[in-house]
Design brief:
Blueprint: E1 9-12, H1 19-27, E2 31-34, H2 43-54, E3 63-67, H3 74-86, E4 91-95, E5 99-104, E6 110-113, E7 119-127, E8 132-138, E9 147-149, E10 156-160, E11 165-170, E12 174-180
Parallel strand pairs: 1-2, 3-4
Antiparallel strand pairs: 4-5, 5-12, 6-11, 7-10, 7-12, 8-9, 8-11
Amino acid sequence: MLWIYKPDVIRGDMDSIRTEVLEFYAKQGTKIFDESEDQDTTDLHKCVAYILQSIPNQESNLCILVAGALGGRFDHEIGNINVLCRFSTTRIILLSDDCLIHLLPRTHHHEILIHSSVEGPHCGLIPIGMPSGSTTTTGLQWDLSDTEMKFGGLISTSNIVKEEKVTVQSDSDLLWTISLKSQN
């Protein structure tokens, strides 16, 4: 049996979709929003904005999972990470075949529950937007204690999850990344 996923909406600047694919989905009833006039935002930005506009009274437990967001062109990956920062009050998870990334805003104390059957053990914390003058963690092999992190200095890469719960407190926004286990 052939399974075809039919998206409700295709939104973007349409520079990378083949005409026959666009026509196929349009015939299936998918709404097409061509925003080729807007070259100042990425396709992901356009899609997240659409989701947020479409949900009345946005609930705080909204989570947007973006599959295929990593592993391609580096400038696209950075653009996707920028979307995390631009929509910092919305939980957005960027997913690839081997890891996931999401933003930990400095305004919160974070408790990350680790699902060890699918996540880990490798993880990292990367300051984004500005250096971190103070980051403290628990649950990692190499916990941070009031540690300064910045590009050109220390960033927490190749760390190891040791507990089912990791806590993170920082004075700057951080990217949390954790490896995903192969499900073959």
